[in-house]
Amino acid sequence: MTRALFIIDVQNDFTEGGALAVVGGAAVAAGISALLAAHPQSHRHIFASRDWHTADSANGGHIALAEAPDFVTTWPVHCVAGTPGAEYHPDLVLPDRAVHIYKGQGEPGYSIFEGRNGEGDTLGATLALRGVTDVDIVGIATDHCVRASALDALEHGQHVRVFTDLIAGVDEAASRAALAEMAHMGAVLVESTTTTVLD
Ligand code: VGL
User: Fold this and answer.
1) What burial letters (b/e) apply to 81-103, b meaning 16+ CB within 10 Å?
2) Where exactly are the structural domains of the chain?
3) In the CATH hierarchy, which top-level class contains the domain 3-51+89-190?
4) Which of 7, 62, 73, 75 maximizes ligand 1 atoms within 8 Å of its Cβ, making it the mutation to test the pocket?
5) Taking CB atoms and a 6 Å cutoff, what residues make up the pocket around ligand 1?
6) What residues pair up with 139 in beta bridges, in sequence order?
7) pTM above the 0.90 mark?
8) Angstrom distance (rounded) from CA 50 to CA 6
9) pLDDT, tens only, 141-190
10) Element containing residue 168 per DSSP (H, E)
11) What would the pLDDT profile of 13-45 be if each residue is shown by its tens digit?
């Protein structure tokens, strides 16, 4: 087994005070840092994604520029590449070996599999190269980018776990539905604090 951790979009704009604030986002940042500090060896590979949207662009219909966003498929301007809102939340402490994945450049880009590392490699290619078989997923938002990333990871043949104490969602009902869908498709939902989960 070769295990990877996906840290999805723990960015200032998705946490309290951000342009698309998700309640509980800052706590997720701190919780992930605590997990990494307590279990530095538990994941051989760490991939952290950031929404990295193009400025002054609808990014493929994802961002409502003129009309009001519906907060389901259209959103206020958020995570513009290179701005403070697109940075990781300050309570997220990543090890140097973390691979940074940029996604949503001119497109919605919900799934981390739609992103690329700094060299332009897709995540799917990098996972295959590194022999990753198992993926644990944490981050924001449960009902959007966490959901899409988990479903894509399953599609890529990974064993997938979602750490339910280290995610935060935009909408409560949609997040519940997303968790049910992920589980139905084969993801294991588990708290990161469960004994043996990170052995
Ligand atoms: C996300 C809404 C809009 C996410 C991204 O990271 O889950 N949610 N864009």
Assistant:
1) eebebbebbebbebeeebbbbbb
2) 3-51+89-190
3) alpha beta
4) 75
5) 9, 14, 20, 51, 75, 140-141, 144-145
6) 8, 167
7) yes
8) 11
9) 999 999 999 999 999 999 999 999 999 999 999 999 999 999 999 999 99
10) strand 159-168
11) 999 999 999 999 999 999 999 999 999 999 999
